[in-house]
Write a structure and sequence with these properties.
This protein is an alpha/beta fold. The chain is 33% helix and 25% strand.
Length: 171
């Protein structure tokens, strides 16, 4: 569902890559590049309910806090990739939390002094419509950032082929 909602952003000028490697053992679930900058998305699923609307970072459910921290770390990694070529790149980090359990949580909450937002999965589409930045990058910057992500993904896919790992191409 997260990827489906992100694919719908193409109509608004966004481009999407899924499963780009952050390092040799960790991936970033989704990275979208568009008019509002770069959106870095970590998707989590649990059979237990997530607690999204906690007013205090310190009292946050440990699983929700871990998801928020991973989203924040992924955003930092993407910022680091572009530190020299795009030092003022707007990167928005989110964790989208899905569950099969009935939950009292809804909506979204920003944590860690704005470093990441955790979003109740069913509310992700609404968040994209109301909270996702819509400006800040012109088409030349979008093309530049996208081409670097394509380069990284192509390199990742090449390494996988050389190692005999059969997975779908990243882009």
């Amino acid at each position: 569902s997260t990827a489906q909602d992100l694919r719908a952003l193409r109509r608004r000028g966004w481009r999407l890559v899924n499963g780009v490697m952050k390092n040799k053992s960790q991936d970033i679930d989704h990275v979208a590049v568009g008019p509002g900058g770069v959106l870095v998305v970590e998707t989590k699923w649990s059979s237990y309910p997530w607690s999204v609307n906690t007013s205090n970072w310190r009292s946050m459910d440990p699983n929700t806090k871990s998801a928020a921290e991973q989203a924040s770390d992924n955003g930092k990694a993407v910022r680091d990739w572009f530190r020299e070529s795009e030092p003022d790149l707007l990167v928005t980090s989110v964790g989208v939390l899905w569950s099969s359990a009935r939950s009292n949580s809804s909506g979204w909450q920003t944590y860690g002094e704005g470093k990441a937002t955790v979003i109740n999965g069913p509310d992700f589409r609404s968040w994209l419509g109301t909270e996702l930045p819509t400006s800040g990058m012109d088409s030349a910057r979008i093309d530049h950032v996208w081409s670097e992500l394509v380069r990284r993904a192509d390199e990742q896919d090449r390494r996988n082929r050389e190692e005999g790992i059969a997975i779908p191409p990243t882009i």
